[in-house]
Amino acid sequence: MLRISNHYVSKVVFSLLFLEVLILIGSFYAGAGLRVSAGAEFMLPQLDHFFLSACVFAAAIVFSMSALGMYQVRLSEGLRNSFFLQLMPSFAMGFCILTLVFYLAPDLYFGRGILVLVFCISGTGIVLARMLFLKTSELSFLESRILFIGCGTLARDCGELARAGSYHRYRIAGYVRVPCEDVAVPEDSLLVLEEGRTLLQLARQCRVSEIVVSVQNRRGVEFPIADLLDCKLFGIEVTDSTTFFERETCQIRVESVQPSWLVFGGGFDQSRVRTFMKRSFDLVASLLLLVVTLPVMLLTALAIYIEDRAPVFYSQERVGKDGHLFRVLKFRSMYMDAERGGPPQWAARNDPRITRVGRVIRKLRIDELPQILNVLKGEMSFVGPRPERPYFVSQLNERVPYYNVRHSIKPGITGWAQVRYGYGDSVDDALQKLQYDLYYVKNNSLLLDVLVLIDTFKVVMFRGGR
């Protein structure tokens, strides 16, 4: 895995993306060259715009492929299942994006003839590139051999995650048993350090490239810290189980995290530079979204008024950054007085309190659009943890470890947990979403914000909402 702007990215996915960007730009020049060699009478764009046109074409296609999930490659499933059925819709979406770009910036337009050739060449190149990656990803030399220190439930969970091999292929060499820990892994996978033999010798014998320390409770355990240092000096990567989970699942596992890991580990960037960049991103993204969705918002307001009369909006108290309270603004999707005479309730999947219009706008997440005003006021960010009501926050702070950490940054209209986990209506769901929120709080960056926006587009357009 590569770490780019604090975010873990699969080496396979990054390499595939890099190769396909080169293919898209190269096919643009190849298409123009073929058109010229054919002797057709047409005007090429000016040279200073030509490369920019190529980059715009590549960006439109890559965005479309990302929105349809073509870069969420799971090696355990291969590339076939997520490729051929998505390539044509991706190109169709890319064509629509390019049409809009050329309408707004006609100087970038390069003609129908070149466009047809470029799509044909780039489509063929991407098919060949994906087939090449499909074959190479199945080769055993790309696998990493991994060794786990520990044999309890934590080691078992780490092993199951490694066997799943979502974004990287692992071959488990075994589990090194430690004293005073119950065995939760298969007996035949246990490795015993014989007397007089070092962990480094065992690791070299098993040809491992990484050791994951997965001991649940290290107190009172004869922890082989000196042996682990020898392994690291020899070139074997040594990883903590919390970091392993963070890397492989893009979330922070609350059950195994140690306070010292949060304190002394990297991330949690709250510098002035990051704050300025995030605020600038919030303002630009919010204003663009406001302009694009204004007709949709007007039609939504009219539909709500026709079905259930005024008010069209509703505001509700939520917990923001540093625990400060603010009133979030949303389109009303429930009947009036939905919680009259009772305590606050989690919104359920088929909640009878939701109106017919409310079901539609919730599914498409249109009900969230008025929160743009909260972002412009500085109470929220465009991307961040979902803001919760004080009633639920007080409960979750008592029952879920580190829940209050998510309030160290502003809440968002959309977020890493919302696009990765989706719907949640219980404390257990809140725990799962918190693990994604902690990952975002720890690793938040402009890159991660862009990835969340792409995933949000995919959720709204192709997978529905909560």
From TrEMBL:
Family: Belongs to the bacterial sugar transferase family.
Principal localisation: membrane
GO cellular component, one term: membrane
Transmembrane segments: 12-30, 50-71, 83-104, 110-133, 281-306
Keyword flag Transmembrane: yes
Protein name: Sugar transferase (PEP-CTERM system associated)/exopolysaccharide biosynthesis polyprenyl glycosylphosphotransferase
Occurrences of domain Bacterial sugar transferase (ranges): 278-461
Gene Ontology MF terms in the entry: undecaprenyl-phosphate glucose phosphotransferase activity
GO biological process: colanic acid biosynthetic process
Pfam families assigned to the protein according to its UniProt record, in alphabetical order: Bac_transf (PF02397)
Localization of this protein: Membrane
Superkingdom of the source species: Bacteria
Bilayer topology annotation: Multi-pass membrane protein
InterPro entries documented for this protein: Bact_transf (IPR003362), EPS_sugar_tfrase (IPR017475), Sugar_tfrase_EpsB_2 (IPR017464)
UniProt entry tagged with the keyword Membrane: yes
Keywords of the record: Membrane, Transferase, Transmembrane, Transmembrane helix
